Amino acid sequence: MIKKDFMKEIENSLKIVKREVDKNIINGDISKAKEAINNQLKGLVGLDIMTIDTLSFSSIIDIISREDEFNGEKYIALGELLCLQGFVCQSTGDEEGEIRYYLKSIDALNEAFNEDSDIEKRYFQDGIHISDLLSTYDLTINENKKIFKFYEIVGKYDKAEDILFYMIKKSNKDKNIIAVGISYYERLKNLSDEMLECGNLSREEIEDSYKELMNIC
């Protein structure tokens, strides 16, 4: 199977399972919604939800990377399905589960980009939505780092900046976080004005924030 065909299979499977999950939630059949997600996880990614719940994400990466074929696409599927799992938790008022699965979804989408930086950004739209939602919670520094990384990947540079300064404040101006910020602005400096404008940050704003962080060091 070629890469394009596998991605088409993923897209079709995700459309079907999303409709099925929505229908089951409306009907109040949460167990069927979770079962539909789990079946697609096993079919598209080769992992079930129990394994994903048990293992660290680095262990999940190790398992997926063993086949070394269509890994970027598998991470997209994983991210989308974990997003659905988080949505099911959200619909039942399970905030802890919602946050946990949404964060794992972001992990998967970040890894998809690491595997293949040419993956179309349209596959990251759900990730943007849940990142916006997650950013309203009081998350740990490490959890915020995941969202920060994702926002940069999808070109939401202003939102990444908001997360950055939240982390700086939350960490009491930790030098490591400031270093993350300095590196971030150095990367942005190399982008075109058009790309920066699309990300809602001007070159002047970037220079000002960069100087601010350099003065803290």
TrEMBL record:
Q: Which InterPro entries match?
A: DUF6483
Pfam families per record? DUF6483 (PF20092)
Q: What is this protein called?
A: Tetratricopeptide repeat protein
Organism for this UniProt entry: Clostridium paraputrificum
**What is this organism's lineage?**
Bacteria, Bacillati, Bacillota, Clostridia, Eubacteriales
